[in-house]
Amino acid sequence: MAPLLLLSLLLLLSSTSLQAQQNITLGSSLTPEGPSSFWLSPSGDFAFGFRPIEGNTSSYLLAVWFDKTSDKTVVWYAKTNDPDPALVHVSSGSQLLLNSNGALSLQDPTGTEVWNPRVVGAVYAAMLNTGNFVLAAADGSTKWGTFNNPADTILPTQVLTPGMKLRSRIIPTDYSNGRFLLDLQSIGVFLYTVAVPSGKMYDYYWSMAGNTTKLVFNATGMVYITLDNGTQISVTSGVTGSMLDYYHRATFDPDGVFRQYRCPKKFSNLSSQAWSVVDFKPPNICDSQLTNDGSGICGFNSYCTFNGTNNQSICLCPEQYSFIDEERKYKGCKPDFQPQSCDLDEAAAIMQFKMIPMNNVDWPLADHEEYSPITKDKCQQLCLADCFCPVAVFHDKSNTCWKKKMPLSNGKMGDNVERTLFIKLRECTRDFSQKIGEGGFGSVFEGKLNEDRVAVKCLESARQGKKEFLAEVETIGSIEHINLVRLLGFCVEKAHRILVYEYMPRSSLDQWIYYRHNNAPLDWGTRCRIILDIAKGLCYLHEECRRKIAHLDVKPQNILLDENFNAKLADFGLSKLIDRDQSQVVTVMRGTPGYMAPEWLTSQITEKVDIYSFGVVVMEVICGRKNIDNSEPEESIYLINLLREKAQKNLLIDMIDKQCDDMVLHKDEVIQMMRLGMWCLQNDSSRRPSMSTVVKVLEGTMTVETCMDYNFFSAYLVLSVQGNQSAYSAPPPASV
Fold first, then answer.
1. Residue 522 shares a structural domain with residue 546
2. 576, CA 20 to 30 Å: which among 138, 386, 510, 591?
3. What is the pTM of this model?
4. Which positions bind ATP (predicted)?
């Protein structure tokens, strides 16, 4: 029994010694540069120390951050002890010292103290696995900790009590005090707009009231407030999935939204590690309570629109206005034209200025004058003739007109698409002289709008009727997603039908995978990201919109790339909206040869035709060739036929793009991607995966179906055999 007791004592002493090594002893110090710039938690998940400021590597924060995430997300940073605490930052040559008096002291290169937590007598410090950096007493109790002095973020197990606050950053890369404050009071939690730089609190724009004792981010991922009677009221809905598999945080972001995030600790090779939003408050900040003072959620003369896809508010300027500071949009918008002179008579004002309509936009607190009842035309005329009126808002149902005054505040916009008059578009495209492409329904020109490059699609009325035009506007204008090309405006005036899109500088995917433009081969990582982007765009159309949207013409020419090769789906001219209770929609045959699913022969069409087309695109991306290429030997002209043959002979490796060494190096991953493509190419549409399943496979949370039919065929191949090939043409050039 004695040897066993001795062994137990030895193990206990060993464990205690190990724990002691994890504590930071008096006399320890950190410097911004060199090997001793931070202290890690025992798990290695968190670090405390000096962190270079983004964009200014000669200046450092004293911070806590996630050390294993790809972006090393900062969750705490030191601020002064003033009533309105300001950011503390130092230069290289500074030092953080835990001195012999048990005090933590931050000193600049001259030895002058610039920050301390106002605590002495600590026996040691520790960076805990919870993300809390503490100064501890001899009995292990906390004398001071970052959890009790939060910046803009809270972590699981952290508790806020009345009087504690979170202050947003001014912008994501500038940790200075921002325009929003979360204030926990004894009567509830309140979100305020705040003046910068004075710190004056304006009106609150969201609240959760009650006799509050604390705000808790518990270990199961729930954020809630506790009332004095013990009732818990959820602030966020909590996380899904295991807490052990994800990192968690809740941050009061620079746009004034309190968001709960999670980030996977492990991730597949097909996707990057990233934070995703679990829940947020307020649900739509653009619809939050108005603030009587200040500019509101966005800066003066701008308006707020909410993107429900990525849970971000966006501040925009009206037509012919631009941001004073593009990086710091909270500073507001300025007109890009000489303001109207009060010396102009009414006739001259009407000749020089024109009202450009925008749907569902308002600045509700900037009234100059009100007229009711009145017509829309008369409302515009009154504003045109008034040199003090930059904007007029008209309400159709009540026939009421409000003339607005500068500066405009509390601006917000609904979901409808902005309308832009044709004369403005002709000006911004230099009379349509810079042609950059031609699609199935018209030509595409490069232009400028508010100093931004845009793509202007001029539709040929003889080739696309009003019905098709309005269908495209309705489809694109009602949705917004990071992997869908954004519609900025449209015009339908007389014979002119024009769509204005965001500009995509890398053009279309076909120019990068067919090697027609002497572009360098895309590496495997870029191809993976492009495929995932396409999948996410289609998943949004099929499963996340109010009505399902079938694109019906998925092909490389309709996949556009931005400067960083992020992919976005374009050209919704063939789209069909499908009610949620409809399983299919009957339509005439359309699409592009080679990408058409077998069920086009029956005209019983669902969104599964897009999944077939996606499978074809996946194969083209992997093989680096067109799916129908008459320059190939006869047996290889049709990519789908070649795929069937190689799959049956287990020779898929023969199809990998040989012009890219990186593809060959990752051949096992490439073949797995090909199997995903083949799953999407199943002749029986019911056996194809949904796009949400495809996304899960690409993100590594699901595997590819193993039992597949390799007898692939397409509607085009059947029609070709039947002698109807002449009814179809080769894929058109890239379109917007």
1. yes
2. 510
3. 0.56
4. 457
